[in-house]
Every structure is written in C-alpha cells, then in structure tokens.
C-alpha cells in the first residue's frame, strides 16, 4: 500500500513537471492570437463543441455525490431508531 501511494505521488510530481515544461515552451507564447475572447464565444463553444463532454462530466459528478452520500450514512441501530421514532424490541 505504501508503494502504491509513493508511486502515485511520484507520478503526480512528474506530471506536474511535464505540464509546467509544456506550458513554458516558446512555441506556446510565440505568436499572439488575432482575436480577443468574448463571453458569447465561450458560451457558444461550451454549448456546441463541449456539450457532450460537459454532460459526461456532470454524470460523473452526480455519481460521485450519490456515492459520497451513501458512504456517510450512519445505519447503527440507535441512530435508525432515533430517526424513525421506533422502540427497540
């Protein structure tokens, strides 16, 4: 278990270094864009080009929230009796 945790941390650190190196390349910043971004352009691309991806992301987030809600439920007998107002037999 500790090996998996260590391997995951090292992988995330390596990924961070790779992302920083990719963003800091000269080719990324060499030629500025001709157009300025607008709010309507962002809305258009989110709804038309990224609609399916946003839908999938929303489904994943909903499943994660339902799973978290299920995991935090406390089903000990005294809590169930208090919640439903019953008496122990």
Rounded radius of gyration (Å): 24 Å
Tell me about the biggest sheet? none
Strands, count: 0
Mean pLDDT across residues: 86
Structural class: mainly alpha
Contiguous low-pLDDT stretches (5 residues minimum) are none
Helical content class: over 70%
Strand share of the residues? under 5%
Number of helices, where a helix is a run of at least 4 consecutive DSSP H or I residues: 5
Helix and strand pattern = HHHHH
The best one-word shape is flat
Rounded to the nearest angstrom, the distance between the terminal CA atoms is 43 Å
Summarize the structure.
The protein has 89 residues and is mostly helical. The protein has helices at 2-23, 26-29, 39-49, 51-71, 77-84. The two termini are 43 Å apart.
Helix and strand layout, with pairings?
Elements: H1 2-23, H2 26-29, H3 39-49, H4 51-71, H5 77-84
Written description of the protein model:
It is a single chain. This protein is mainly α. It has a domain of 36 residues. Helices cover 74% and strands 0% of the residues. The model has no long low-confidence stretch (mean pLDDT 86).
Protein traits:
mainly alpha; 0% strand; 89 residues
């Amino acid at each position: 278990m500790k090996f998996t945790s260590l391997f995951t941390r090292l992988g995330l650190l390596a990924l961070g270094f790779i992302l920083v190196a990719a963003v800091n390349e000269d080719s990324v910043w060499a030629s500025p864009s001709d157009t300025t971004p607008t709010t309507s352009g962002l809305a258009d691309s989110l709804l038309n080009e990224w609609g399916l991806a946003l839908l999938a992301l929303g489904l994943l987030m909903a499943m994660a929230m339902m799973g978290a809600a299920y995991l935090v439920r406390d089903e000990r007998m005294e809590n169930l009796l208090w919640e439903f107002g019953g008496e122990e037999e």
